[in-house]
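Researcher: Before we compare anything, I want clean individual predictions. No alignment, no superposition, just each chain on its own. First chain goes here; please echo the sequence and then give the structure tokens.
Model: Echoing the first chain and its structure:
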Amino acid sequence: MGLFERYWSFKLLAKSRRTIGNVVLIMLVMIPLVISLVFVDSMIDGITTKYIRLAGGHIQFKADSDAVVDNPALSRTVSGFAELYTQKSNASALIKGVDASYFNDERLSQIQLTSSDWKLDGNFVIISENLRRKMNLEIGDKFALLMLSNPEQSQSASFSPVFRPLLVKLGGVYSSGYSQLDDTLVFASFDFLSEILKEEYITLEMLTDSNLPEENLKTATKVMSENEDLLSFKLWNEMNTQIYMNFVSSRQMIMIIIIVIAFIACFYAGTVVHEIVQDNFSEICTMRLLGARDIQIKRTVFLAVLAIIILGVVLGIGIGLLVSFNLSPLLKLLASSGFSGFSMYLLDFNMEIDVPVLLSMGLLVIVVSSISVLISLRNERKISPLLLLRN
């Protein structure tokens, strides 16, 4: 592009009555796309983090129940399924036996304990606020558990379930902010639950710095090589296959919807070409009188429209990010409102930016819009200086 085209494209933009309006319209397309992308990615990452921190860890190692593994990064757990009973209500849940040290800073960052004097020893258990309300319990109340012994054997066709009735006390109440997890997870003492289940093996959970399966695989392989008592391992995406695939498919579906909307919106750029030509009819005729060729005029218009598109995309992404990061107080207010419509969603999470995806989306809008502009320019009729005299 020569100096001639750049000068006249700037002149066309400065004179066009609808330049600001076109920039604003492109911004209004980009802002909701950016907010949707950041919101969905952040929510999925938040749910994934809660499941990993509370339900299973990044990596689960299997070891004999009497094995001694000297690794502070590993937390021993046992688990089984149970029915919780009171006189007025009942619920199904996964009972997870853990030590008090299980609730380190990383895990406590994902939950809120309603009291500082919670107990997790003997037959005391910790349940979610959702279950507490459903079963009408208070701290210290007793209720019954119908425990399913050896739940791993339930995969066998010859398995005959054995239920054990237990009497437990409510030692604490937690809330993770995600009802799908809270409704099905109960914590008990490791010693208490392992004595009940009498499992041949125990599970050792490990948290890492990454949610990426390939990174966790490297860590698991290294830990296995350093501890002979560890028998096998599973990664978090293998333990929660259905949940993991739901997250993947949800993210893919949202991305497809965003791309389709972006494609449809991009064809609006073609109408901007006609508007600039109409608003700058006399300037374009002047360019022809100065000897500008048809290709130079089209380049000039293309540069003008491209500047509008890029400015709209950049401002839209910037404002979209600004709005996204200021949504947290509103989301937390909605989460605490108690409105049942929001109970199925995680609303208390940190906003995360997937920079490569965000930049790719912006680039996609610019490229598709540019193609739309080029198509419109090919269909735009050739302007003759005589038309100026005729008008």
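Researcher: Okay. Second chain, same rules.
Model: Second chain and its structure:
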Amino acid sequence: MRAASNNDVDPLDGTVKSQWIARLQTIFKSYIDNHSDILQLRYVGVANNGKEIVRVERRDGIVSIVDDSALQSKAQRAYFKVITKLHPGELYVSDLNLNREFGKLDFPYLPTLRVAMPVFDQTQKIFGFVIINIKAQVLLDEIQQDLSKELDLYLINERGDFKIHPNNAMTFGEDLGNSNAWDDLFEPLAADNGFSVAYDVSAG
């Protein structure tokens, strides 16, 4: 950060921006190498129109540092706008959705959870943020692994989009352009005991 505001040279130790980036790349790669559930680890700038400054990713089991020419701007993503409004000490945790690169869904589909922490300069102005993409399929599998085969499990977000459904084709409708949602498939039943009960309209 000090280098960015001083012609890319840190006024305290003389480190140039390229050295700082190389160090961060090494740290990120080591972290992903030792955490198998991490898909990406990135440092995203704010003043540079939301472009990734450092990005390390895991693809097909291989962890690699992404070349500068392949770094992307994330300024148009909804999470960028939310993260840049955070205050010191606050974290961002995303909705669970399918990963996208250059605006297109990855295939095979990658259920992803993002956690981000903003980084501020000496004047407490946001400079950028560190964001981790976590492989959410591990979490989804763990939720379901101890479930009795006689039971159906549903996991939805606040808008009723299915993240877990007995029919996998019904999941992640928001990402895939499907209209499947909880309110479309279930109707509430009256309950006097404090519990919410829903009726599966597709069951007749």
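Researcher: What stands out in the second chain?
Model: The chain has two domains: 17-138, 147-203. Additionally, Residues 36 and 61 are 9 Å apart (CA to CA).
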